Amino acid sequence: MRAHKAINSAWSEPMFKGWSSPIELGDASLKSDVAIVKGERGLEPVFQALDLIGYESALHGWDKILIKVNFITVDTWDTGATTDPMVVEALIKKLKNLPAQIFVVESDATMTNSDKAFEVTGMKETCNNNGVQCLNLRHVKDRVKIEIPNGETLQSITVPRIVTESAIISAAKLKTHMSTKVTLGMKNMFGLLPDKFKAKYHAKGISKVIVDINTVLKPALTVIDGFVGMEGRGPTGGPPVRMDLIVAGKDVVATDATAARIMGFEPMEISHIRKAYEKGLGNIEDIEILGTGLDQVRRVFKRN
Q1: What is the pTM of this model?
Q2: Which residues span the domain enclosing 279?
Q3: Is 126 domain-assigned?
Q4: Is 150 in contact with 169 (CB distance < 8 Å)?
Q5: Contact 106/114 with Cβ under 8 angstroms?
Q6: What dihedral angle (degrees, nearest 10) is formed by the CA atoms of 241, 242, 245, 248?
């Protein structure tokens, strides 16, 4: 069993087993592959994106895999606010050939009960049909503290132990956000924190908090659901945008940078993406696009 491990001293060794150090991740000679697949809503675009990035290598050695969905609200996928169960079903089907237990996870937010969201959005039905457990992280009592070396605003976070013992897939949504401009793979990791009342983290500077979380809990894969996205007053109040897209990669910074460009943003204007790049957590510029070309799918999303 592989496991993430907390570090008490800053960067004296790679942060987690199987990971590169920040210096290695920031090496300009290393390219990050990001897949863009254009296709109508269904399993196949997700399958294609995963195959393009060689998804199995990112999950090798893990006996548990968490698919982290976005349930900021109980609205269904077609509003552009929450992760599409179709994307999760495709992920589960691809992961079934691996020797790992699969969970679909989210935690309560200030205004959202994840248990209700699992029901209302159809995600629980998808999980039941595929023999996978839905898990509300707020109710998991076995927790561990992770020290954050050189944190932007946090010194540590406390998360369920299962989070530190699992490969994480950030099954994010292609949408805007009034506080962070975009909410993609990195922002989705914020929901791993089991606290229901998360306003205290916003008060510390949400972009800095996002970077700190991704410094110690970096997704093995990021799969961005762009079948229907959201523009304008995201993450819940904007109009839906049909994009018929899946964006996926092993480097969450590169994947988010690519998705941001698709939406008409420059990655360097998005604080948490820029800072993650500056800290060596991933690439912004040295990215190999696989599948559909970025210019073929770019659409300028309305700002807040």
Answers
A1: 0.91
A2: 22-297
A3: yes
A4: no
A5: yes
A6: 30
